[in-house]
Amino acid sequence: MKHEHEKVSIPTAPATRESLSEKDCLTCKVIGSTAFAATGLYALHASRASAPGSVVGKRIMGGVGICFLIGSMMRWHM
Q1: How far, in Å, CA of 8 to CA of 11, rounded?
Q2: Is residue 16 scored above 60 in pLDDT?
Q3: pLDDT grade, residue 25 (50/70/90)?
Q4: What's the rounded Cα separation, in Å, for the pair 46 and 64?
Q5: What is the mean pLDDT of residues 21-39?
Q6: Mean pLDDT, to the nearest integer, of 19-41?
Q7: Long-range contacts of 70-73 (CB under 8 A, 24+ apart)
Q8: What per-residue confidence (pLDDT) applies to 49?
Q9: CA geometry: angle at 48 spanning 50 and 46, to 5°?
Q10: Could you give the CA distance from residue 24 to residue 28 in angstroms, rounded to a whole number?
Q11: 10 three-class SS
Q12: CA 73 to each of CA 9, 20, 44, 70: distance values in angstroms, whole numbers, following the listed order
């Protein structure tokens, strides 16, 4: 005998990293990679020797620029 207020559960597939990353379209990858690369190039430009700022600040900006360029490559390939 069924009751009126019984809950029915519908099984759903768990959201995994692989299933979410497969949904990235080519346009999303291009825009994301370009944004990371542009930010990395800007940070490297800010770390040049003739730029104003301290030596430590320039080194930090250089490291940030390299990280964003690596992120750009990872965004494209993953």
Answers
A1: 10
A2: no
A3: confident
A4: 10
A5: 86
A6: 84
A7: 71/36, 71/40, 72/33, 72/34, 72/36, 72/37, 72/40, 73/33
A8: 87
A9: 105
A10: 6
A11: coil
A12: 42, 19, 16, 5
Q: What six digits make up the tokens of 61?
A: 């900006």
By residue count, the chain amounts to: 78
Matching residue, tokens 């990353």:
21
* Residue recorded with tokens 């930010």: 39
Two tokens, residue 53: 């700022």
The answer on pLDDT for 56 being more than 60 is yes
Cβ–Cβ < 8 Å for 66, 40: yes
17 or 67: which leads in pLDDT: 67
Q: Contact, 44 vs 65, CB < 8 A?
A: yes
